[in-house]
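Section 5.1 Outputs to date
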Amino acid sequence: GVDFLTTVGNWVLASGVPSERGGDPALHAMAFNRCQDLLGRLSRVELDVISYLNKLVSEQGTDTAGSLNVTLDFYTTKVPLEQVELLSSGMSLCIPSSCRTEREVTFVAFLYFNCVAHSSCEGLDDLPVAVPRLNTTFLADFREYPDSGTPLDEVSPSCGA
């Protein structure tokens, strides 16, 4: 099967739509359609990304937190505060349907934030694999739509976590 890590760029492009509770139905439909194209699971991530990254950097130590420091710098200096605050109210995240456990979902979300900050998913080998839990809520799973006719376990990439 396909490994999620080799196709992560597709999943990043299908994510990132504002997804606050009670938000714009048109934005939700757009996020769902993007995720449906990948046969993924649409979720909402609510995250104080700066606090989360600060905690990880302090746990890793400054010598081993290279990529994390780049990611933290991106969200503290290059992204407007209003956009960073939007993450706290919710953002869509499309993940492979094979990602079912809390650990796997957290890993995918963590990768997303790092790939965006680095403008690529390449060269992130020093990222920690075990990361603290994120507040994630599943919104829709393409598996719930029987008309698709495609067994998702056969086409969805492995989670890679």
